[in-house]
Amino acid sequence: QKDAASYFKCHCLRTFDIFNSPVKINQISLDESGEHMGICSEDGKVVALHPRFSSSNYKQFVTGGNKLLLYEKNWLNRWKTSTLHEGEGTITNVQWRANLIAWANNMGVKIYDISTKQRITNVLRDNVSLRPDMYPCSLCWKDNSTLIIGWGSSIKICVVKERGHTELRDLPSRYVEIVSAFETEFFISGLAPLADQLVTLYFVKENSDHMFRARPCLDIIQPLPEGYEEISSDALTVRNFQENECRDYRLEHSEGESLYYIISPKDIVVAKERDQDDHIDWLLDKKKYEEALMAAEISFKNIKRHEVQKIGMAYINHLVEKGDYDTAARKCQKVLGKNMELWENEVYRFKTIGQLKAISQYLPRGDLRLRPAIYEMILHEFLKSDYEGFATLIREWPGELYNNMTIVQAVTDHLKKDPMNSTLLTTLAELYTYDQRYDRALEIYLRLRHKDVYQLIHKHDLFSSIEDKIVLLMDFDKEKAVDMLLDNEDKILIDRVVEELRDRPELLHIYLHKLFKRDHHKGQRYHERQIGLYAEYDRPNLLPFLRDSIHCPLEKVLRHFQNCRMGNCRRALQMIMEELEDVDKAIEFAKEQDDAELWEDLISYSIDKPPFITGLLNNIGTHVDPILLIHRIKEGMEIPNLRDSLVKILQDYNLIRKNICESCHASILPSGGVVVFHCRHMFHKECLPSPGTIPGVQFCNICSAKRRGPGSGILEMKK
């Protein structure tokens, strides 16, 4: 038998008592049903048999020899003989199908149509160098119109077809077309159809060097237009095969039972298609375990001598012997199924050969579960040498597979040797989580700054456990921590968060800032504190905060800025002037700071804004010389309430004593027009003499006689 899969199962019939003849059997013939058999021998005897191997009452048959004779029974049940062909030598093979009879002689192959009593073709022999008596022709019908011819080493497939009416004339109504022809590497002893393939019985060509005759072979081939493909091959054991020639073998087949009869001088071998059990036997014998397992799984309802699980176990054993432990472990999942005893046996076998890791990922973890000791044994094995693998199993295996506390203790023992091992710490946190010891798990996650810490808090509602861990959470991820705290204000109160962050003002600012963005009122009691936090950590957002907050009195803002450095004071003054546009508060702030540069900034900002100038004139008092402001006012600018402002300035400088005009000595009323000189002499406007030579400038009459100086005149102001 060749290495290709065997298609047939053969057994030899050592004795054949139904036809006892001292001479050679030339041919047997079976009808289409396989129920009747005809046998002929070299002495010319022909026997027709029915299923019980007794005489059959066939009404027609043909015989060969030098003539092709047709035997037919007439109405008197007597045989009538007709000669269909003669004159071309011995007829070596005859095959009859429906209305067509094919026969072979030394010249070639003929086909006769009984229905029309016409011979319709003559297919000549190809290799005339081969002796026809040593290499006889093989014939078989595939169906009612397809004839297969094998002669020597060549095969032809012929199809009988109907002629068109226009082609008839004097020609037969049918003709033959050769649809395939090819040469083989062997001498053909017999042919039979098998679906669209061919069964060939062949005789191996002799080796001229050693005159060696091999056993005959039964092959299945796939015909192609100009060749063939071998599908399977079986070498047959028959008695005295060393002495046999090509002509000593014949092949007949029974379509009804899919049986093939191989005839040799001493034996008749019956071949039939292998069933799945036979196929699996062959695969196992060839150590093709995977294919055998697949075949058994596909045909599990039809196999009788094999069991899928036993074949699978044989496959696993084979893989283990080969050292392919990973594949063997993977196959356990399919082969062992829900057999817990087999599973545990395999686990211990893998432990014995030091391959527990290989089988670990395939252990049952669903409805079927092994004893906890089995899983714990594997976890301990990983803990010895593979922390990452151990962590993977803890994540993948349900916690109920093993005793959780046993594994926690084992991990704790290993952490004593390596206390900062992040893999072991993370795994321990997962074990604590499964054991519902969330506080312990949370501590580990926070220490490791593990990304799952927030998921753990949300999933298990651990907000009460993180009240004293807010700083740790914000140090880990400020944005996530603040969002979580604000999303759960009902579980962690704002006051508690502020209290926890009291020593970390930079974190407190982030929390309160986000709180203010969400709601301007919720953290109103902390708005005053936020002024300093913004000033220290987030100055660009200070002014927007002050603008949007209605819970932050300006007095408190000013009080805060009193403690600022000069740079900050100038920014604060700018904020009051530009954002709040409150000159009174700006003057108050400048007075409190008592800084000349700050007053200069205030005057510079106000000099083109009449309402601001009025405010300055009314409030500048004795902190700054009013002349500094008055000299910088543009000529012709309308100043609201200027008279009242000037009066207030004079009062601040104690310029008004007796309120007497130095010219007429009458009382001066605040509502009247008044001119005051730097010398502090005061006049009714109408009591002043005519202006001097300098346009717009008046001089005190009293002092003008004494001297003319920069303090004796004042620009005329309009009310």
UniProtKB/TrEMBL annotation:
InterPro entries: Beta-prop_Vps41, Clathrin_H-chain/VPS_repeat, TPR-like_helical_dom_sf, Vps41/Vps8, WD40_repeat_dom_sf, Znf_RING, Znf_RING_Vps41. PROSITE patterns: CHCR (PS50236), ZF_RING_2 (PS50089). Pfam families: Beta-prop_Vps41, TPR_Vps41, zf-RING_Vps41. Keywords: Metal-binding, Protein transport, Transport, Zinc, Zinc-finger. Residues 661-704 form the RING-type domain. GO terms for cellular component: HOPS complex; late endosome. CHCR repeats lie at residues 482-615. This is Vacuolar protein sorting-associated protein 41 homolog. GO terms for biological process: cellular response to starvation; endosomal vesicle fusion; macroautophagy; protein targeting to vacuole. GO terms for molecular function: zinc ion binding. The keyword Hydrolase does not apply.
